[in-house]
Amino acid sequence: MCGRYASFTESQDLADELAVAEIADDARLLGPRWNVAPTDDVRIVVEKPRREKLPDGTTTAGEITRSIQAARWGLVPSWAKDPSVGARMINARRETLLDKSAFAKPLGARRCLVPADGYWEWRRLAAPEGTRKVPKQAYWIHPSRGGVAAFAGLYEFWRDRSRADDDPARWLVSTTIITRDAAPGLDRIHDRMPVHLPAERWDDWLDPAVGAQDAYDLLDDAEVALSTRPVRAAVGNVRHDDPSLLEPDPDPIDPDVVEL
User: Fold this and answer.
1) What average pLDDT does the chain have?
2) Three-state DSSP class for residue 204
3) Which PANTHER family match (predicted)?
């Protein structure tokens, strides 16, 4: 998967489709995006105990609640010296989740859904004779039947120890999208793709009582019907972020347009 996706469905509509009980204020403030890029703040869906304040001022864990939260795209492990490492961890390969320390722990305790309307990918074409520049055709890849695409994701907390204990910015929440080998047909565009979890697996994936191995098994044969559309090159520039990016390329440079 390349490093771009779109998430423009309104938060309340996402909440309705994903059976979300609460929307965090910072997540609600995130506007629609047609060109989400690494290190951007994004929306994630999580299940965790609600924090409840007791009469003596302390807090305790309450009932498990599904909510939409905000997180930075690019996972920062809790042991990282600084958050810059997150730019290299926007994706987590499904094949190595149980082996890599940055992903194995959150796989067992901090899984999320990353809601999207679709994602962008670029197909590398043959370079014209006499030139080294490799042309690329951009594609919009999205659920065939509409509705939200729920990417399997992980999230993590990182503590900025240079900030005071009472500084609300001392904690950074970050996320990564799990990828897999591309499905037949899509592999003509790129060899990797995000794991789309079908609706019947959302509950188990988010359930904090499900262990790492069982969660890993939920990624097997995770299939959602997808459609492709060649689009114009404007999506390659993060400064372009509007609905026009979804419009078909009237004159694609791909001589063999990929259609699913």
Assistant:
1) 93
2) helix
3) ABASIC SITE PROCESSING PROTEIN HMCES (PTHR13604:SF0), DC12-RELATED (PTHR13604)
Q: Using 50, 70 and 90 to split pLDDT, how confident is the model at 166?
A: confident
Clarify whether 121 is annotated catalytic. Answer: yes
Beta-bridged to residue 185, according to DSSP, are none
Q: What is the pTM of this model?
A: 0.93
Q: Active-site residue among 2, 47, 112, 156?
A: 2
* Residues 6 or more apart in contact with residue 17 via CB below 8 angstroms: 9, 147, 148
Q: Which of 22, 121, 223, 259 is catalytic?
A: 121
The burial class, CB within 10 Å (0-12 / 13-18 / 19+), for 225 is exposed
pLDDT reading at 27 higher than 80: yes
Residue 52 known to be catalytic: no
149 to 105, 215, 229: CA distances (angstroms): 25, 19, 16
3 vs 36: CA distance, rounded Å: 8
At residue 109, the pLDDT reads 94
Using only the alpha carbons of the chain, give its radius of gyration: 19
> Domains along the chain?
5-118+145-224 (3.90.1680.10)
CA distance 120 to 99: 28
